[in-house]
């Protein structure tokens, strides 16, 4: 078994005191740069691993921030994490990332594991099954900040960063109505998830504002909204009589997949059915026709939520999210060919 390298081994190897080695490794100003360099080089060559855990126990800070995402297999989540990581690494924090896979059971287990690992703060986008929030209680009791993003809990104590999903769905639906659509179908994920429940509201508001009647068969709900749900969606659409002339899909990958299948069935996009997606994922720009979509600022969302958490960790007296419990980011409609009936 390999022996663990200690500061005493490094000290002996280059002929300095263990105290000097310890100070150098902690970047103490009392150690000359030349000596520091020598010590770092020796530590690296000998395979020394600093005992961060012991140091953390002394400082009661781990410099780790826990992040729980519903699924890593999403370009939106990837862009949010990129924004988080940028801000965290600039401030000297590491991310510990886990996924709930939309299961409340897994979310609870992940939360417990983060608590035991003594993360300094926690950032969460809730699982679709998550209904109760008791698993965050130990963090609140210990004064460990918890922030939500995208899927924010409906509770007075929840702080988080989101977009105005009601407004986003309204502008998407209004755009289809402006293009002359009279019979629009909205495809979305489980309405247990706040973002989809809000988008459904926005869809209904747009119809009502334009004097149109909302019918239940205008809504297709998928347990998981992604490219795999397209076959089910297209079957449902083709069985509707009359055939819809507008389609608003709450996810670009699903929208692109629906569009491909509709085209294969001889449906013209946008002439027969005008199409709008959501998230402004790369796929929306790669297919033909390119998909009109809502720009969801993932990187910015990651940066904003992380910056707020770190500001609070560095100066605990500052309130999370500057005395408000939500930050709402701007989202815009990006108009492309898939929806333009009126060219």
Can I get a quick summary?
The chain has 13 helices and twelve strands. The chain has 343 residues and is an alpha/beta fold.
Describe this entry's structure for a reader.
The protein has a six-stranded parallel β-sheet, sandwiched between helices. The chain has a four-stranded parallel β-sheet with strand order 7-6-8-9, sandwiched between helices. It is elongated, with a radius of gyration of 26 Å. Helix 5 links the parallel strand 1 and strand 2. The protein has three domains: about 5-50, Orthogonal Bundle (434 Repressor (Amino-terminal Domain)), CATH 1.10.260; about 60-160 and about 300-330, Rossmann fold, CATH 3.40.50; about 165-295 and about 335-340, Rossmann fold, CATH 3.40.50.2300. The longest helix has 17 residues, at about 300-315. It is built from 13 helices and twelve strands. Helix 5 (about 75-90) runs parallel beside helix 13 (about 300-315). Helix content is about 45%, strand content about 15%. By secondary structure, it is an alpha/beta fold.
What attributes does this structure have?
Lambda_DNA-bd_dom_sf, 434 Repressor (Amino-terminal Domain), 343 residues, 13 helices, transcription regulation, single chain, six-stranded parallel sheet, Rossmann fold, alpha/beta, Transcriptional regulator, LacI family, four-stranded parallel sheet
């Amino acid at each position: 078994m390999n022996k663990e390298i200690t500061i005493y081994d490094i000290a002996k190897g280059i002929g300095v005191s263990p105290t000097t080695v310890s100070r150098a490794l902690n970047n103490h100003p009392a150690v000359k740069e030349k000596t520091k360099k020598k010590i770092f080089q020796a530590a690296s060559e000998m395979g020394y691993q600093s005992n961060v855990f012991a140091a953390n126990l002394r400082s009661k800070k781990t410099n780790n921030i826990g992040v729980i995402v519903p699924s890593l297999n999403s370009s939106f989540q990837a862009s949010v994490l990129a924004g988080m990581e940028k801000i965290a690494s600039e401030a000297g924090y590491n991310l510990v990332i886990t996924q709930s896979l939309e299961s409340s059971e897994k979310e609870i287990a992940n939360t417990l594991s983060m608590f035991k690992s003594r993360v300094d703060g926690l950032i969460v986008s809730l699982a679709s099954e998550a209904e109760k929030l008791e698993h965050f209680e130990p963090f609140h009791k210990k004064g460990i900040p918890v922030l939500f993003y995208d899927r924010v809990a409906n509770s007075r104590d929840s702080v988080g960063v989101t977009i105005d999903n009601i407004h986003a769905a309204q502008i998407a639906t209004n755009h289809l109505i402006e293009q002359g659509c009279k019979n629009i179908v909205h495809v979305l994920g489980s309405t247990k998830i706040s973002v989809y429940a809000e988008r459904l509201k926005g869809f209904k508001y747009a119809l009502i504002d334009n004097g149109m009647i909302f019918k239940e068969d205008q809504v297709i709900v998928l347990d998981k909204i992604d490219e795999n749900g397209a076959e089910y969606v297209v079957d449902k659409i083709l069985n509707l009589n009359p055939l819809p002339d507008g389609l608003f899909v709450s996810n670009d990958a699903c929208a692109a997949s629906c569009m491909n299948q509709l085209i294969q069935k001889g449906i013209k996009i946008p002439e027969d059915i005008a199409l709008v997606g959501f998230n402004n994922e790369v796929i929306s720009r790669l297919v033909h026709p390119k998909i009109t979509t809502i720009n969801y600022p993932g990187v910015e969302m990651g940066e904003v939520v992380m910056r707020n958490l770190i500001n609070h960790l560095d100066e605990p007296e500052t309130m999370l999210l500057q005395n408000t419990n939500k930050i709402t980011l701007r989202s815009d409609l990006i108009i492309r060919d898939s929806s333009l009936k009126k060219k």
